[in-house]
Prior knowledge:
This protein is mostly helical. Helix content is 77%, strand content 2%. It is built from eleven helices and two strands. The chain has helices spanning 3-10, 26-53, 60-87, 96-129, 134-137, 140-164, 183-189, 195-228, 233-266, 272-297, 299-312; strands spanning 13-15, 93-95. The chain has a two-stranded antiparallel sheet. Helix 10 (272-297) packs across helix 11. The chain starts with a helix and ends with a helix.
Amino acid sequence: xxxxxxxxxxxxxxxxxxxxxxxxxxxxxxxxxxxxxxxxxxxxxxxxxxxxxxxxxxxxxxxxxxxxxxxxxxxxxxxxxxxxxxxxxxxxxxxxxxxxxxxxxxxxxxxxxxxxxxxxxxxxxxxxxxxxxxxxxxxxxxxxxxxxxxxxxxxxxxxxxxxxxxxxxxxxxxxxxxxxxxxxxxxxxxxxxxxxxxxxxxxxxxxxxxxxxxxxxxxxxxxxxxxxxxxxxxxxxxxxxxxxxxxxxxxxxxxxxxxxxxxxxxxxxxxxxxxxxxxxxxxxxxxxxxxxxxxxxxxxxxxxxxxxxxxxx
Length: 313
C-alpha cells in the first residue's frame, strides 16, 4: 500500500449512530444515559474508596473486587464521550485512529473483566475448598501476579486484531451501528481481506471468554461438592452466601456478551434498535450493576456504607 493510500485510510471519518429513527428524542434519551454514567462513576468510586479506607477489607477478595471496580470505571470512561456526545448532538464523528483506540479499550476491558471474575472464582474456591491454606496460597505477591497476568493477557491478546484495523480500506458507507466503536462493527465496513481478524476474534472468544466461563463453572462444581459435604445446614448457607455476589456479577457480565454476540451473528434481520440496545447493555450494565450487587450482598461493604452514611446524617 502506498503512502498516499495509507494517509487516505488513516484520515477516514466514521459516523456514530445513537438510536436510529429516534433522533428527535435525543434530549430525553440523554437523561437516563447521563444518570447511568453518573451512577457508574459514583458507584465504582465509592467501592474503591470504601476498600481503601477500611482496614478489614485489605484482603485478596476485596483487592480483586477493587480491580473489578477499576475495570468497570475504565469502561465507563472509555465510552462516555462518544455516547453522550452523540445524544447531546455535540459530535457524531470519530476518526479511524480514535475508533481503533476505543475498540481496543472496550474489548480489552471486557477481556480483563472476564479474567478478574475468573480469579475471583479461584479466590472463592480456595476459601471454601482449602480454607486452612487460604492465606498461604493467596499471598499479596501472588495476588499482584494474578492481576498483572490478567492485565497483560488482555492488553497483548487484543492487540494483533485491533492494530490490523488501521491498515484496512473502508469503502462501505462509514456508518457505525453504535455510539461507540467495536471490532466487529469496523470489520463490517471494511473491503479488505478480513479473514485473519474474523478467525482471530473467534479464537480469542474461545480461549478467553469461553474458557474463563468454563473454568468458573468448574470451580463452582467443586465449591458445591465441598459445601454439600458439610454436615451443618447453617454452615452450608454461610459458605454459599459468600459466593452470591460473585455469581450475580458473572451473570451480569456474561449474559449481555452472549446476547450481543448472538445479535451480531444471527440477528441481521432484526431492527437496528435491537443492535443498539444490546450494545449499550453490554457496555453499561455490568459497570452499573456490580457496585449495587457488592454493596447489597457483601456484608463488610454494606456495614461500612451504613456506618458512613449514618455519620453523614
